[in-house]
Every structure is written in C-alpha cells, then in structure tokens.
Write a structure and sequence with these properties.
The protein is 36% helix and 19% strand. The protein has helices spanning 22-35, 60-67, 75-78, 89-96, 102-115, 137-144, 158-171, 191-201, and strands spanning 10-15, 40-43, 46-47, 51-53, 56-58, 81-82, 118-122, 148-153, 176-182, 206-210. It contains 8 helices and 10 strands. It is globular. The chain has a single domain (10-45, 100-224), classed as Rossmann fold (3-Layer(aba) Sandwich), CATH 3.40.50. The chain starts with 9 loop residues before the first strand and ends in a 17-residue tail after the last strand. By secondary structure, it is an alpha/beta fold. The strands form 3 sheets. It has a 6-stranded parallel β-sheet with strand order 2-7-1-8-9-10, sandwiched between helices.
C-alpha cells in the first residue's frame, strides 16, 4: 500500500511516554518512507542529555536519526538545541543558560525541508512534556504545520496512555494521522489482544507493529510499517 496522496512533507513523532521507542520508530519510519520513493531526513529540535565531543554537544537519539537520514543533514540543523544535562528540556535549558524558542527550530526545519522530500521530526518525552515555560510541543507542531504520528509503547498501561495521548493531541488542535505499536516490554502478556483493543479504539490507522529487537538495524524493519 502506498502513502496517501499528497505525500506529507513532514511528520511529527510523539509518544505515549518517554522511553517507548520514539527514536527507533522514527528511524524505521525514515527507511520506510524512502522505500516509497524520495528522500527523508530526521530532526530532533530539542535534545537533552548530550555528550561533549570534539565536534560539540551530541545526542544519541539525534545521531541515530542522522544515521537513518538521506541526504545527510548538518547536525546543527537536525538538532538546533543540544542540551548537556539529562533533564527535562525546560530544566536543562535553564541550567545551560539557553532560551528555547521556535524561530531557530523553524529556520533549521526550513533548511532540512529544502534538502529532502520528507522530514521526520521527533519530539521529546510524551506529548505534553513542555519545551519551555512558554513553548509546548503543540506550538512546534502548529508552527511547522505538522501532522502527528503517535508511537505506543506496548506495555502494561498502554491502553490508557494511548487513549489519553490521542485525546490530548486532538484537544490541542493537532491532527494525528497514524500510530505505531512498539514492543518495548518482551514480557508483556496478551500483546496481540492489546493491539487489537487499541486498533478498535484509536481514531487513526495503525501504521504497523515493531518487534522487541534491541540493537536491530532499523532499515531491516522498514517493511513492518504500512501507511
């Protein structure tokens, strides 16, 4: 099955919580998009928990997105706000003396958009995790005119978290166009039944299900996503 026409120029990937595989899912999505034709690059507008390197602050999630991108973007465009402390962005930015704002993100996004057919923008934590005292992730979504894809971490409580997140996305006036099931807990009981319950209750289509596969090459799982 092919992507809906017209193909989205960009997507925003959010999740039901932190640690549910947004980055891995985004990397798989980048490869899946390219299999449908065209180029696709990732973006992590705000990343905390960055490490100091000879090239500057680098974030593990952002470098994973870079490795899955084609053409290869400039790191400063992929991750315009790199924060060292592994804290909520609002706290990490305050400690670094950085003011998070939308304008630098919009400028970096425009450069990425000019270089590729599709940009996959990954958020931080869950949907309602704030970026700053005056900037929520919904502001970024509206500022960049992005449809949303929701990653659901399959673990106990995912039914509640997924439905709450879907309702919160809609309440902020954003449009969620699909969701991805990501198996983050290999010991979770009744995974098939939970996916079926989610499929029946979420108002957007399921784009696929990713297996629990630590260290897997995301390119090898691209065929698991169907748009």
């Amino acid at each position: 099955m092919s992507l809906p026409a017209p193909r989205p120029a960009a997507l925003f990937v959010t999740g039901t919580d932190t640690g549910i595989g947004k980055t891995f899912s985004s990397c798989v999505l980048l490869h899946a998009l390219r299999r449908h034709g065209g180029t696709a690059v990732g973006m992590k507008p705000v990343a905390s928990g960055c490490e100091r390197t000879p090239e500057g602050l680098r974030n593990e999630d952002a470098t994973a997105l870079m490795a899955a991108s084609l053409p290869l973007p400039a790191y400063a465009d992929l991750n315009p706000f790199a924060l060292e402390q592994p804290l909520a962005p609002e706290i990490a930015a305050a400690e670094a003396g950085v003011q998070l704002s939308l304008a630098p993100i919009e400028a970096a996004f425009a450069r990425l958009r000019a270089s590729a057919d599709t940009v996959v923008v990954e958020g931080v934590g869950g949907w309602l995790a704030p970026l700053s005292g005056t900037l929520d992730q919904s502001d970024l979504v509206h500022g960049l005119a992005l449809p949303v894809v929701m990653v659901v971490g399959l673990r106990l409580g995912c039914l509640n978290h997924a439905r709450l997140t879907a309702e919160a996305i809609a309440a902020r006036g954003a449009r969620c166009i699909g969701w991805i099931a990501n198996e983050v807990d290999p010991s979770m009981a009744r995974r098939d039944e939970n996916v079926a319950l989610l499929t029946a209750r979420l108002p957007m289509p399921c784009w696929g299900r990713l297996p629990y596969a630590p260290g897997a090459d995301p390119a090898r799982l691209a065929d698991r996503l169907v748009f």
